[in-house]
Specification:
The protein has 178 residues and is mostly beta strands. The protein has 3 helices and 8 strands, in the order H-H-E-E-E-E-E-H-E-E-E. Strands 1, 2, 3, 4, 5, 6, 7 and 8 form an 8-stranded antiparallel beta sheet that branches. The longest helix has 7 residues. It is globular. The two termini are 22 Å apart.
Length: 178
């Protein structure tokens, strides 16, 4: 079942953990590709120095200040896209980065999806999907709940990756993985 917009309108830290064991689904033409979400990172509010939103609302970050349940996709290092889903109420900038999935169906071969750039490359995710809803119909990219139950004891927590510049926020245990 595709997650509805209300799912994303709650605490980012809660959503980042609840997304583990859900399935990222990408539609390309008539083909469906899916993978189980196994790693996420939370970016919470305007004071989180690791978040793009900490510098205020810009054309790039405007989607983070919008309604929950929309994709925030950006380019890093001039070559890799990163996939985020906007969370929390409008005007409170927060999102969850989907860091890794376990390939489930629709992939041609064994592939690597154990990083945000690799995940986006393999699922052909780019800025054309930025600011589009992950809910409703039609969509080209969404998250499904297929009834897989994840116990809290299965979820590991650690600091986020690559945010050494974020002051006190660099040590927040806001990376979640199975």
């Amino acid at each position: 079942m595709k997650l509805n917009q209300n799912f994303y309108n709650q605490s980012t830290l809660k959503i980042a953990q609840q997304l583990l064991g859900k399935f990222l689904v990408r539609k390309i033409g008539n083909k469906l590709i899916s993978g189980e979400i196994i790693e996420t990172e939370a970016y919470v509010g305007p004071n989180d120095k690791a978040s793009h939103a900490s510098k205020g609302k810009t054309p790039r970050t405007a989607v983070m200040f919008g309604e929950p349940g929309f994709w925030y996709i950006y380019l890093i290092y001039g070559m890799y896209y990163c996939l985020n889903i906007v969370t929390e109420p409008k005007d409170y900038p927060a999102a969850v980065l989907i860091r890794a999935i376990k390939p489930i169906s629709g992939f041609k071969q064994k592939i690597k999806t154990d990083g945000p750039g690799k995940l986006c490359r393999e699922l052909k995710i780019d800025k054309t999907l930025n600011d589009l809803p992950a809910f409703g119909s039609p969509t080209k990219l969404w998250i499904e709940d297929r009834g897989l139950k994840i116990k809290p004891s299965q979820i590991k927590k650690s600091p986020r990756v690559g945010v050494d510049y974020a002051g006190e926020y660099k040590n927040k245990l806001w990376r979640f993985y199975l």
